[in-house]
Amino acid sequence: MNVHVGNRLQGSLPKIGIRPIIDGRRGGIRESLEEVTMEMARNAAAFLTEQLRHSNGLPVECVIADSCIGGVAEAAQAEEKFARAGVGLTISVTPSWCYPTETMDTHPTRPKAIWGFNGTERPGAVYLAAVLGAHNQKGLPAFSIYGRDVQDIGDTEITPDVKEKLLQFAKAGLAVATMQGKSYLSMGSVSMGIAGCIVDETFFQHYLGIRNEYVDMTEFVRRMEIGIYDQEEFEIALKWTKENCREGAEVNPEHLRRTEEQKSGDWETVVKMALIARDLMIGNPKLNAMGYGEEAFGHNAIAAGFQGQRAWTDFFPNGDFMEAVLTSSFDWNGIREPFMLATENDTLNGITMLFGHLLTDAAQIFADVRTYWSPEAVKRVTGHQLEGKAANGIIHLINSGPAALDATGRQSVDSKPAMKPFWDITEAEVQACLDATQWCPAVDFFRGGGFSTDFTTREGMPVTMARINLVAGLGPVLQLAEGYTIELPDDVHDKLDQRSNPTWPTTWFVPNLTGEGLFKDVYSVMNNWGSNHGAVSYGHIGGDLITLAAMLRIPVCMHNVPEERILRPSAWTAFGGMDPVGADFRACQAFGPLYR
Q1: What would the pLDDT profile of 299-329 be if each residue is shown by its tens digit?
Q2: Those residues with Cβ within 8 angstroms of residue 442's Cβ, 6 or more apart along the chain or in another chain
Q3: Is 368 annotated to bind ligand?
Q4: According to the annotation, is 323 in a ligand binding site?
Q5: 355-368 tens-digit pLDDT
Q6: CA 484/CA 465 separation, integer angstroms
Q7: Which residues does the annotation mark as catalytic?
Protein backbone atom coordinates (compact mmCIF):
# COMPACT_ATOMS: atom_id res chain seq x y z
CA MET A 1 0.00 0.00 0.00
CA ASN A 2 1.39 3.39 -1.00
CA VAL A 3 2.26 5.97 1.67
CA HIS A 4 1.75 9.48 0.34
CA VAL A 5 4.04 12.11 1.86
CA GLY A 6 3.90 15.67 0.54
CA ASN A 7 2.48 19.17 0.76
CA ARG A 8 -1.00 19.17 -0.83
CA LEU A 9 -1.67 22.84 -0.02
CA GLN A 10 -0.46 26.01 -1.68
CA GLY A 11 2.40 27.80 0.09
CA SER A 12 5.79 26.67 1.33
CA LEU A 13 6.13 24.90 4.65
CA PRO A 14 7.27 27.05 7.58
CA LYS A 15 10.79 26.67 8.88
CA ILE A 16 12.24 27.19 12.35
CA GLY A 17 14.71 30.05 12.60
CA ILE A 18 17.58 29.60 15.05
CA ARG A 19 19.13 32.85 16.30
CA PRO A 20 22.55 32.44 18.01
CA ILE A 21 22.83 35.47 20.31
CA ILE A 22 26.25 36.69 21.48
CA ASP A 23 27.88 39.36 23.60
CA GLY A 24 29.03 41.71 20.85
CA ARG A 25 32.01 43.22 22.69
CA ARG A 26 35.22 42.55 20.80
CA GLY A 27 38.69 42.19 22.20
CA GLY A 28 38.32 38.71 23.62
CA ILE A 29 34.73 38.46 24.86
CA ARG A 30 32.89 37.81 21.59
CA GLU A 31 35.79 35.85 20.19
CA SER A 32 35.70 33.41 23.12
CA LEU A 33 31.98 32.82 22.64
CA GLU A 34 31.65 32.50 18.86
CA GLU A 35 32.10 28.76 18.57
CA VAL A 36 30.21 27.74 21.72
CA THR A 37 27.24 29.94 20.75
CA MET A 38 27.07 28.67 17.19
CA GLU A 39 27.45 25.10 18.43
CA MET A 40 24.46 25.65 20.71
CA ALA A 41 22.45 26.79 17.68
CA ARG A 42 23.59 23.81 15.60
CA ASN A 43 22.67 21.41 18.40
CA ALA A 44 19.19 22.91 18.74
CA ALA A 45 18.65 22.70 14.98
CA ALA A 46 19.89 19.11 14.80
CA PHE A 47 17.65 18.04 17.67
CA LEU A 48 14.52 19.64 16.20
CA THR A 49 15.05 18.35 12.67
CA GLU A 50 15.63 14.86 14.03
CA GLN A 51 12.48 14.90 16.18
CA LEU A 52 9.92 16.79 14.09
CA ARG A 53 7.94 16.32 10.93
CA HIS A 54 5.19 18.42 9.43
CA SER A 55 1.73 16.88 9.57
CA ASN A 56 2.10 15.96 5.88
CA GLY A 57 5.12 13.79 6.68
CA LEU A 58 7.82 16.07 5.28
CA PRO A 59 10.80 16.87 7.52
CA VAL A 60 10.92 20.12 9.45
CA GLU A 61 13.80 22.35 8.41
CA CYS A 62 15.75 24.75 10.60
CA VAL A 63 17.49 27.86 9.33
CA ILE A 64 20.42 29.18 11.36
CA ALA A 65 21.48 32.81 11.08
CA ASP A 66 24.69 33.19 9.05
CA SER A 67 26.52 34.69 12.01
CA CYS A 68 26.07 35.15 15.71
CA ILE A 69 23.86 38.13 16.51
CA GLY A 70 25.60 40.69 18.66
CA GLY A 71 23.66 43.81 17.68
CA VAL A 72 20.99 45.33 15.49
CA ALA A 73 22.91 45.03 12.20
CA GLU A 74 23.33 41.29 12.57
CA ALA A 75 19.74 40.98 13.81
CA ALA A 76 18.61 42.67 10.58
CA GLN A 77 20.77 40.35 8.50
CA ALA A 78 19.24 37.32 10.20
CA GLU A 79 15.74 38.69 9.69
CA GLU A 80 16.38 39.16 5.97
CA LYS A 81 17.59 35.57 5.67
CA PHE A 82 14.59 34.30 7.61
CA ALA A 83 12.16 36.24 5.44
CA ARG A 84 13.65 34.74 2.27
CA ALA A 85 13.65 31.24 3.76
CA GLY A 86 10.06 31.31 5.01
CA VAL A 87 10.79 31.09 8.73
CA GLY A 88 7.58 30.88 10.74
CA LEU A 89 8.92 30.79 14.31
CA THR A 90 12.23 31.49 16.00
CA ILE A 91 14.30 30.20 18.87
CA SER A 92 17.05 32.46 20.13
CA VAL A 93 19.88 30.64 21.92
CA THR A 94 22.74 31.93 24.01
CA PRO A 95 25.19 30.78 26.70
CA SER A 96 26.07 34.30 27.81
CA TRP A 97 25.02 37.83 28.58
CA CYS A 98 24.06 39.82 25.46
CA TYR A 99 22.37 43.17 24.73
CA PRO A 100 18.62 42.43 24.82
CA THR A 101 16.91 45.18 22.83
CA GLU A 102 19.64 45.09 20.20
CA THR A 103 19.46 41.37 19.58
CA MET A 104 15.84 40.38 20.23
CA ASP A 105 13.39 39.11 17.59
CA THR A 106 10.92 41.96 17.02
CA HIS A 107 8.71 40.36 14.38
CA PRO A 108 5.15 41.32 15.41
CA THR A 109 3.35 37.99 14.93
CA ARG A 110 5.93 35.21 14.76
CA PRO A 111 6.03 32.84 17.77
CA LYS A 112 9.34 33.23 19.54
CA ALA A 113 11.27 31.55 22.33
CA ILE A 114 14.60 32.12 24.06
CA TRP A 115 16.78 29.30 25.33
CA GLY A 116 19.13 30.73 27.91
CA PHE A 117 21.87 28.25 28.84
CA ASN A 118 22.01 27.51 32.55
CA GLY A 119 25.71 28.05 33.16
CA THR A 120 27.78 30.16 35.54
CA GLU A 121 30.79 31.32 33.49
CA ARG A 122 28.84 33.84 31.37
CA PRO A 123 25.28 33.02 32.38
CA GLY A 124 22.75 32.90 29.58
CA ALA A 125 20.07 33.10 32.26
CA VAL A 126 20.88 36.77 32.84
CA TYR A 127 20.29 37.54 29.18
CA LEU A 128 17.19 35.33 29.22
CA ALA A 129 15.65 37.31 32.06
CA ALA A 130 16.60 40.65 30.56
CA VAL A 131 15.38 39.91 27.04
CA LEU A 132 12.12 38.46 28.34
CA GLY A 133 11.62 41.71 30.22
CA ALA A 134 12.19 43.56 26.96
CA HIS A 135 9.74 41.36 25.10
CA ASN A 136 7.10 41.91 27.75
CA GLN A 137 7.67 45.66 27.88
CA LYS A 138 7.36 45.92 24.11
CA GLY A 139 4.27 43.72 23.89
CA LEU A 140 6.02 40.88 22.04
CA PRO A 141 5.41 37.83 24.25
CA ALA A 142 8.13 35.18 24.19
CA PHE A 143 8.56 31.75 25.75
CA SER A 144 11.29 31.03 28.26
CA ILE A 145 13.39 27.87 27.95
CA TYR A 146 15.77 27.40 30.85
CA GLY A 147 17.27 24.15 32.09
CA ARG A 148 16.83 23.16 35.71
CA ASP A 149 20.44 22.11 36.31
CA VAL A 150 23.65 24.12 35.90
CA GLN A 151 25.88 22.95 33.06
CA ASP A 152 29.48 23.76 32.24
CA ILE A 153 30.02 26.17 29.37
CA GLY A 154 30.74 24.21 26.23
CA ASP A 155 28.60 21.28 27.38
CA THR A 156 26.74 20.32 24.22
CA GLU A 157 24.14 18.10 25.86
CA ILE A 158 20.55 19.29 25.66
CA THR A 159 19.01 18.23 28.96
CA PRO A 160 15.67 16.36 28.94
CA ASP A 161 13.69 19.26 30.41
CA VAL A 162 15.03 21.64 27.76
CA LYS A 163 14.27 19.11 25.02
CA GLU A 164 10.70 18.87 26.22
CA LYS A 165 10.20 22.63 26.13
CA LEU A 166 11.89 23.00 22.76
CA LEU A 167 9.55 20.43 21.24
CA GLN A 168 6.43 21.82 22.91
CA PHE A 169 7.20 25.33 21.70
CA ALA A 170 8.29 24.25 18.23
CA LYS A 171 5.30 22.03 17.50
CA ALA A 172 2.82 24.71 18.59
CA GLY A 173 4.73 27.40 16.69
CA LEU A 174 4.71 25.29 13.54
CA ALA A 175 0.94 24.91 13.92
CA VAL A 176 0.54 28.69 14.07
CA ALA A 177 2.72 29.21 11.01
CA THR A 178 1.12 26.37 9.05
CA MET A 179 -2.39 27.77 9.46
CA GLN A 180 -1.47 31.26 8.34
CA GLY A 181 -2.83 32.11 4.91
CA LYS A 182 -4.74 28.86 4.44
CA SER A 183 -8.52 28.55 4.13
CA TYR A 184 -11.46 27.06 5.97
CA LEU A 185 -14.04 25.89 3.44
CA SER A 186 -17.71 25.89 4.42
CA MET A 187 -19.59 23.45 2.21
CA GLY A 188 -23.12 24.60 2.91
CA SER A 189 -24.06 26.77 5.85
CA VAL A 190 -25.57 26.27 9.32
CA SER A 191 -26.76 22.80 10.26
CA MET A 192 -29.90 22.52 12.37
CA GLY A 193 -29.32 25.83 14.12
CA ILE A 194 -26.00 24.80 15.69
CA ALA A 195 -24.20 28.03 16.59
CA GLY A 196 -20.75 26.52 16.04
CA CYS A 197 -21.63 26.34 12.34
CA ILE A 198 -21.96 30.11 12.11
CA VAL A 199 -18.75 31.35 10.52
CA ASP A 200 -17.17 34.09 12.62
CA GLU A 201 -14.73 35.61 10.14
CA THR A 202 -13.18 37.84 12.79
CA PHE A 203 -12.14 34.76 14.75
CA PHE A 204 -10.67 33.02 11.72
CA GLN A 205 -8.82 36.05 10.39
CA HIS A 206 -7.65 37.78 13.56
CA TYR A 207 -6.88 34.78 15.75
CA LEU A 208 -5.84 32.10 13.25
CA GLY A 209 -4.73 33.96 10.12
CA ILE A 210 -7.11 31.76 8.12
CA ARG A 211 -9.36 33.06 5.35
CA ASN A 212 -12.91 31.84 4.82
CA GLU A 213 -14.22 30.22 1.64
CA TYR A 214 -17.78 29.13 0.90
CA VAL A 215 -19.55 26.85 -1.58
CA ASP A 216 -23.20 25.88 -1.65
CA MET A 217 -23.99 22.18 -1.37
CA THR A 218 -25.54 22.37 -4.85
CA GLU A 219 -21.94 22.35 -6.10
CA PHE A 220 -21.90 18.64 -5.25
CA VAL A 221 -24.99 18.13 -7.41
CA ARG A 222 -23.45 20.04 -10.31
CA ARG A 223 -20.22 18.07 -10.19
CA MET A 224 -22.01 14.72 -9.87
CA GLU A 225 -24.43 15.39 -12.73
CA ILE A 226 -21.87 16.87 -15.12
CA GLY A 227 -19.12 14.46 -14.09
CA ILE A 228 -16.60 16.92 -12.67
CA TYR A 229 -14.48 14.33 -10.88
CA ASP A 230 -11.83 11.83 -11.90
CA GLN A 231 -13.87 9.02 -13.49
CA GLU A 232 -10.99 6.57 -13.35
CA GLU A 233 -10.38 7.22 -9.68
CA PHE A 234 -14.10 6.85 -9.00
CA GLU A 235 -14.06 3.32 -10.37
CA ILE A 236 -11.03 2.46 -8.23
CA ALA A 237 -12.62 4.04 -5.16
CA LEU A 238 -15.95 2.26 -5.66
CA LYS A 239 -14.22 -1.10 -6.08
CA TRP A 240 -12.14 -0.51 -2.91
CA THR A 241 -15.27 0.52 -1.03
CA LYS A 242 -17.21 -2.59 -2.03
CA GLU A 243 -14.28 -4.79 -1.00
CA ASN A 244 -13.52 -3.09 2.34
CA CYS A 245 -16.67 -1.42 3.67
CA ARG A 246 -19.07 -4.09 4.88
CA GLU A 247 -22.67 -3.19 5.54
CA GLY A 248 -23.99 -3.42 9.08
CA ALA A 249 -27.37 -3.79 10.72
CA GLU A 250 -30.51 -2.32 9.16
CA VAL A 251 -32.46 -0.77 12.03
CA ASN A 252 -35.10 1.14 10.09
CA PRO A 253 -38.71 -0.07 10.08
CA GLU A 254 -39.71 -1.98 6.98
CA HIS A 255 -41.56 0.90 5.33
CA LEU A 256 -38.49 3.19 5.56
CA ARG A 257 -35.91 0.72 4.29
CA ARG A 258 -34.26 1.44 0.97
CA THR A 259 -34.15 -1.22 -1.70
CA GLU A 260 -30.92 -2.95 -2.67
CA GLU A 261 -30.99 -0.98 -5.91
CA GLN A 262 -31.28 2.27 -3.98
CA LYS A 263 -28.46 1.27 -1.65
CA SER A 264 -26.24 0.44 -4.60
CA GLY A 265 -26.89 3.90 -5.98
CA ASP A 266 -26.22 5.42 -2.56
CA TRP A 267 -22.77 3.82 -2.45
CA GLU A 268 -21.93 5.37 -5.80
CA THR A 269 -23.15 8.77 -4.62
CA VAL A 270 -21.25 8.79 -1.34
CA VAL A 271 -18.01 7.79 -3.05
CA LYS A 272 -18.47 10.64 -5.53
CA MET A 273 -19.15 12.99 -2.62
CA ALA A 274 -15.80 12.03 -1.04
CA LEU A 275 -13.94 12.72 -4.28
CA ILE A 276 -15.70 16.04 -4.76
CA ALA A 277 -15.18 17.25 -1.21
CA ARG A 278 -11.47 16.49 -1.43
CA ASP A 279 -11.20 18.28 -4.79
CA LEU A 280 -13.04 21.28 -3.34
CA MET A 281 -10.54 21.45 -0.49
CA ILE A 282 -7.21 20.97 -2.25
CA GLY A 283 -7.96 20.88 -5.98
CA ASN A 284 -7.14 18.20 -8.51
CA PRO A 285 -4.92 18.74 -11.57
CA LYS A 286 -6.81 16.03 -13.45
CA LEU A 287 -9.82 18.32 -13.58
CA ASN A 288 -7.78 20.79 -15.61
CA ALA A 289 -7.09 18.13 -18.20
CA MET A 290 -10.86 17.56 -18.36
CA GLY A 291 -11.44 21.24 -19.16
CA TYR A 292 -12.30 22.44 -15.68
CA GLY A 293 -9.38 24.74 -14.93
CA GLU A 294 -11.10 26.77 -12.22
CA GLU A 295 -12.25 23.68 -10.34
CA ALA A 296 -8.77 22.19 -10.56
CA PHE A 297 -7.40 24.81 -8.15
CA GLY A 298 -9.60 24.00 -5.16
CA HIS A 299 -9.85 26.35 -2.18
CA ASN A 300 -6.50 25.67 -0.45
CA ALA A 301 -8.49 24.49 2.56
CA ILE A 302 -6.53 23.23 5.54
CA ALA A 303 -9.90 22.39 7.12
CA ALA A 304 -13.51 22.28 6.00
CA GLY A 305 -17.02 21.36 7.06
CA PHE A 306 -20.10 19.89 5.38
CA GLN A 307 -23.54 21.12 6.47
CA GLY A 308 -25.48 18.05 5.47
CA GLN A 309 -28.46 18.22 7.77
CA ARG A 310 -31.10 18.97 6.86
CA ALA A 311 -31.09 20.57 3.43
CA TRP A 312 -28.90 17.84 1.94
CA THR A 313 -29.84 14.76 3.94
CA ASP A 314 -33.58 15.17 3.44
CA PHE A 315 -33.03 14.31 -0.22
CA PHE A 316 -29.49 12.97 -0.83
CA PRO A 317 -27.42 10.30 0.96
CA ASN A 318 -25.73 11.66 4.08
CA GLY A 319 -22.12 12.78 4.31
CA ASP A 320 -20.98 10.12 6.75
CA PHE A 321 -18.90 8.07 4.31
CA MET A 322 -17.29 11.19 2.88
CA GLU A 323 -16.42 12.56 6.30
CA ALA A 324 -15.27 9.25 7.81
CA VAL A 325 -13.02 8.31 4.91
CA LEU A 326 -11.51 11.75 4.40
CA THR A 327 -10.76 12.22 8.11
CA SER A 328 -9.09 8.80 8.22
CA SER A 329 -5.40 8.30 7.43
CA PHE A 330 -6.06 6.09 4.41
CA ASP A 331 -8.34 5.48 1.45
CA TRP A 332 -8.30 3.74 -1.94
CA ASN A 333 -5.11 5.58 -2.89
CA GLY A 334 -3.18 4.32 0.11
CA ILE A 335 -2.01 5.77 3.40
CA ARG A 336 -1.98 9.56 3.53
CA GLU A 337 -2.47 12.59 5.77
CA PRO A 338 -6.04 12.78 7.10
CA PHE A 339 -8.24 15.69 6.09
CA MET A 340 -9.87 17.83 8.75
CA LEU A 341 -13.55 17.79 7.76
CA ALA A 342 -16.16 18.75 10.35
CA THR A 343 -19.56 17.12 10.51
CA GLU A 344 -22.46 19.58 10.23
CA ASN A 345 -19.94 22.29 9.29
CA ASP A 346 -19.24 22.92 12.97
CA THR A 347 -16.46 25.35 12.19
CA LEU A 348 -15.30 25.60 15.80
CA ASN A 349 -14.97 21.85 16.19
CA GLY A 350 -13.28 21.69 12.80
CA ILE A 351 -10.63 24.15 13.96
CA THR A 352 -10.19 22.26 17.22
CA MET A 353 -9.64 19.11 15.14
CA LEU A 354 -7.07 21.05 13.13
CA PHE A 355 -5.26 22.08 16.32
CA GLY A 356 -5.08 18.47 17.45
CA HIS A 357 -3.93 17.23 14.06
CA LEU A 358 -1.14 19.78 13.71
CA LEU A 359 0.10 18.95 17.21
CA THR A 360 -0.08 15.15 16.93
CA ASP A 361 0.15 14.57 13.15
CA ALA A 362 -2.62 11.98 13.60
CA ALA A 363 -6.31 11.68 12.71
CA GLN A 364 -8.93 13.23 14.98
CA ILE A 365 -12.28 12.06 16.34
CA PHE A 366 -15.32 14.28 15.77
CA ALA A 367 -18.00 13.37 18.31
CA ASP A 368 -21.13 14.48 20.08
CA VAL A 369 -20.55 14.84 23.79
CA ARG A 370 -23.74 12.93 24.17
CA THR A 371 -24.40 11.45 27.62
CA TYR A 372 -22.96 11.25 31.12
CA TRP A 373 -23.60 7.83 32.60
CA SER A 374 -23.23 7.76 36.38
CA PRO A 375 -22.31 4.46 38.06
CA GLU A 376 -25.79 4.44 39.57
CA ALA A 377 -27.52 4.92 36.21
CA VAL A 378 -25.44 2.20 34.56
CA LYS A 379 -26.24 -0.16 37.44
CA ARG A 380 -29.96 0.61 37.19
CA VAL A 381 -30.15 0.11 33.42
CA THR A 382 -27.78 -2.83 32.99
CA GLY A 383 -27.11 -4.33 36.40
CA HIS A 384 -23.39 -3.77 35.79
CA GLN A 385 -21.13 -2.06 38.34
CA LEU A 386 -18.58 0.23 36.71
CA GLU A 387 -15.04 -0.30 37.95
CA GLY A 388 -11.43 0.61 37.25
CA LYS A 389 -10.99 3.88 35.35
CA ALA A 390 -14.75 3.89 34.73
CA ALA A 391 -15.68 3.62 38.41
CA ASN A 392 -16.72 7.28 38.70
CA GLY A 393 -18.84 7.32 35.56
CA ILE A 394 -18.33 7.60 31.82
CA ILE A 395 -19.07 10.00 28.98
CA HIS A 396 -20.62 8.60 25.81
CA LEU A 397 -19.03 10.17 22.75
CA ILE A 398 -21.25 9.19 19.82
CA ASN A 399 -22.04 11.15 16.72
CA SER A 400 -24.88 11.21 14.21
CA GLY A 401 -22.17 11.29 11.59
CA PRO A 402 -18.76 9.79 11.17
CA ALA A 403 -15.53 9.51 13.02
CA ALA A 404 -12.16 8.71 11.50
CA LEU A 405 -11.65 4.97 11.20
CA ASP A 406 -8.36 5.43 13.05
CA ALA A 407 -10.59 5.92 16.10
CA THR A 408 -11.31 2.21 16.19
CA GLY A 409 -8.01 1.96 18.09
CA ARG A 410 -6.75 -0.87 15.86
CA GLN A 411 -3.38 0.77 15.40
CA SER A 412 -0.80 0.26 18.13
CA VAL A 413 2.19 1.81 19.86
CA ASP A 414 4.16 -0.50 22.14
CA SER A 415 1.40 -3.10 21.69
CA LYS A 416 -1.23 -0.69 23.04
CA PRO A 417 -4.14 0.86 21.08
CA ALA A 418 -3.24 4.13 19.39
CA MET A 419 -3.91 6.62 16.62
CA LYS A 420 -0.63 7.25 14.83
CA PRO A 421 0.85 9.67 12.31
CA PHE A 422 0.02 8.23 8.91
CA TRP A 423 3.64 7.47 8.03
CA ASP A 424 3.83 5.02 10.96
CA ILE A 425 0.65 3.12 10.06
CA THR A 426 1.04 -0.35 8.55
CA GLU A 427 -1.10 -2.03 5.91
CA ALA A 428 -2.22 -4.55 8.52
CA GLU A 429 -3.39 -1.72 10.78
CA VAL A 430 -5.34 -0.15 7.94
CA GLN A 431 -7.11 -3.43 7.30
CA ALA A 432 -7.78 -3.90 11.02
CA CYS A 433 -9.46 -0.47 11.17
CA LEU A 434 -11.61 -1.34 8.15
CA ASP A 435 -12.49 -4.77 9.54
CA ALA A 436 -13.56 -3.22 12.86
CA THR A 437 -16.04 -0.90 11.13
CA GLN A 438 -19.51 -1.61 9.82
CA TRP A 439 -21.45 0.72 7.53
CA CYS A 440 -25.07 0.72 8.65
CA PRO A 441 -27.88 2.07 6.48
CA ALA A 442 -28.65 5.55 7.76
CA VAL A 443 -31.47 5.97 10.28
CA ASP A 444 -34.89 7.33 9.44
CA PHE A 445 -34.20 11.06 9.80
CA PHE A 446 -31.56 10.79 7.07
CA ARG A 447 -34.36 10.61 4.53
CA GLY A 448 -32.01 10.52 1.55
CA GLY A 449 -30.24 7.38 2.72
CA GLY A 450 -26.53 6.82 3.07
CA PHE A 451 -24.43 4.84 5.52
CA SER A 452 -23.10 5.58 9.00
CA THR A 453 -19.94 4.17 10.56
CA ASP A 454 -20.44 1.82 13.47
CA PHE A 455 -17.53 0.80 15.68
CA THR A 456 -16.40 0.97 19.29
CA THR A 457 -13.08 2.54 20.22
CA ARG A 458 -10.71 0.16 21.97
CA GLU A 459 -9.88 0.61 25.62
CA GLY A 460 -6.66 2.10 26.92
CA MET A 461 -5.90 5.01 24.62
CA PRO A 462 -4.74 8.18 26.39
CA VAL A 463 -6.78 10.92 24.72
CA THR A 464 -7.53 14.63 25.01
CA MET A 465 -10.98 16.01 24.26
CA ALA A 466 -11.02 19.70 23.35
CA ARG A 467 -13.33 22.38 22.03
CA ILE A 468 -13.17 26.06 21.06
CA ASN A 469 -16.23 28.11 21.94
CA LEU A 470 -17.10 31.72 21.15
CA VAL A 471 -18.58 33.81 23.95
CA ALA A 472 -20.13 37.25 23.48
CA GLY A 473 -18.04 39.96 25.11
CA LEU A 474 -15.12 37.57 25.54
CA GLY A 475 -14.27 35.99 22.21
CA PRO A 476 -12.84 32.51 21.72
CA VAL A 477 -12.04 30.23 24.65
CA LEU A 478 -10.57 26.74 24.67
CA GLN A 479 -11.59 23.94 26.98
CA LEU A 480 -9.97 20.53 27.21
CA ALA A 481 -10.02 17.34 29.23
CA GLU A 482 -7.32 14.70 29.27
CA GLY A 483 -8.42 11.15 29.97
CA TYR A 484 -8.70 7.61 28.62
CA THR A 485 -10.89 5.46 26.42
CA ILE A 486 -12.53 2.47 28.08
CA GLU A 487 -14.62 -0.46 26.93
CA LEU A 488 -17.66 -2.07 28.51
CA PRO A 489 -18.78 -5.69 28.43
CA ASP A 490 -20.62 -6.32 25.17
CA ASP A 491 -24.04 -6.73 26.71
CA VAL A 492 -23.62 -3.56 28.81
CA HIS A 493 -22.36 -1.61 25.81
CA ASP A 494 -25.30 -2.73 23.70
CA LYS A 495 -27.89 -1.74 26.28
CA LEU A 496 -26.41 1.76 26.64
CA ASP A 497 -25.51 2.24 22.98
CA GLN A 498 -28.92 1.28 21.65
CA ARG A 499 -30.59 3.91 23.78
CA SER A 500 -28.89 6.46 21.49
CA ASN A 501 -28.35 4.80 18.15
CA PRO A 502 -26.74 1.44 17.35
CA THR A 503 -25.54 2.59 13.92
CA TRP A 504 -23.09 5.26 15.11
CA PRO A 505 -19.48 5.04 16.31
CA THR A 506 -18.95 5.02 20.08
CA THR A 507 -16.02 6.18 22.17
CA TRP A 508 -16.42 5.70 25.92
CA PHE A 509 -14.40 8.48 27.56
CA VAL A 510 -13.26 8.92 31.14
CA PRO A 511 -11.56 12.24 32.04
CA ASN A 512 -8.73 12.40 34.53
CA LEU A 513 -10.14 13.84 37.73
CA THR A 514 -8.47 16.26 40.12
CA GLY A 515 -11.04 16.09 42.90
CA GLU A 516 -11.81 19.79 42.73
CA GLY A 517 -13.40 22.46 40.57
CA LEU A 518 -14.49 21.53 37.07
CA PHE A 519 -12.75 18.16 37.39
CA LYS A 520 -13.99 17.10 40.79
CA ASP A 521 -16.05 14.36 39.13
CA VAL A 522 -17.06 13.12 35.68
CA TYR A 523 -20.46 14.78 35.92
CA SER A 524 -18.81 18.21 36.35
CA VAL A 525 -16.78 17.72 33.16
CA MET A 526 -19.92 16.89 31.17
CA ASN A 527 -21.95 19.61 32.87
CA ASN A 528 -19.38 22.31 32.05
CA TRP A 529 -18.69 21.34 28.45
CA GLY A 530 -19.46 24.36 26.30
CA SER A 531 -21.11 22.76 23.27
CA ASN A 532 -22.63 19.57 21.92
CA HIS A 533 -19.44 18.61 20.07
CA GLY A 534 -15.85 17.80 20.97
CA ALA A 535 -12.67 16.90 19.08
CA VAL A 536 -10.61 14.04 20.46
CA SER A 537 -6.87 13.58 19.91
CA TYR A 538 -4.69 10.61 20.73
CA GLY A 539 -2.33 11.34 23.61
CA HIS A 540 -2.35 13.68 26.54
CA ILE A 541 -1.68 16.84 24.55
CA GLY A 542 -3.33 19.34 26.89
CA GLY A 543 -0.03 21.10 27.53
CA ASP A 544 0.60 21.48 23.80
CA LEU A 545 -2.92 22.84 23.27
CA ILE A 546 -2.40 25.37 26.07
CA THR A 547 0.87 26.51 24.48
CA LEU A 548 -0.78 26.87 21.07
CA ALA A 549 -3.73 28.74 22.57
CA ALA A 550 -1.41 31.20 24.29
CA MET A 551 0.39 31.89 21.01
CA LEU A 552 -2.97 32.71 19.41
CA ARG A 553 -4.22 34.64 22.51
CA ILE A 554 -7.07 32.23 23.15
CA PRO A 555 -7.62 31.78 26.91
CA VAL A 556 -8.19 28.30 28.33
CA CYS A 557 -11.29 28.17 30.52
CA MET A 558 -11.14 24.51 31.53
CA HIS A 559 -8.31 21.98 31.73
CA ASN A 560 -6.84 19.24 33.90
CA VAL A 561 -3.20 19.51 32.83
CA PRO A 562 -0.57 19.27 35.61
CA GLU A 563 1.29 22.53 36.20
CA GLU A 564 4.66 21.11 35.18
CA ARG A 565 3.42 20.50 31.61
CA ILE A 566 2.11 24.04 31.05
CA LEU A 567 4.29 26.33 28.91
CA ARG A 568 3.10 29.87 28.27
CA PRO A 569 4.94 33.11 27.43
CA SER A 570 6.77 34.61 30.38
CA ALA A 571 4.52 37.69 30.37
CA TRP A 572 1.60 35.61 31.61
CA THR A 573 3.15 35.54 35.11
CA ALA A 574 2.93 39.31 35.32
CA PHE A 575 -0.82 39.14 34.85
CA GLY A 576 -1.20 37.15 38.05
CA GLY A 577 1.09 34.20 38.57
CA MET A 578 -0.80 33.26 41.73
CA ASP A 579 -3.97 32.89 39.64
CA PRO A 580 -2.87 31.17 36.39
CA VAL A 581 -6.37 30.83 34.92
CA GLY A 582 -7.22 34.47 35.50
CA ALA A 583 -3.78 35.52 34.32
CA ASP A 584 -4.34 33.68 31.05
CA PHE A 585 -7.58 35.57 30.42
CA ARG A 586 -6.04 38.92 31.33
CA ALA A 587 -2.94 38.38 29.20
CA CYS A 588 -4.94 37.28 26.15
CA GLN A 589 -7.18 40.31 26.50
CA ALA A 590 -4.25 42.70 26.93
CA PHE A 591 -2.22 41.44 23.98
CA GLY A 592 -5.24 40.82 21.77
CA PRO A 593 -5.52 38.41 18.83
CA LEU A 594 -2.31 37.55 17.02
CA TYR A 595 -3.29 39.08 13.67
CA ARG A 596 -4.82 42.44 14.49
Answers
A1: 999 999 999 999 999 999 999 999 999 999 9
A2: 313, 317, 318, 320, 449, 450, 451, 452, 503
A3: yes
A4: no
A5: 999 999 999 999 99
A6: 10
A7: 344, 368
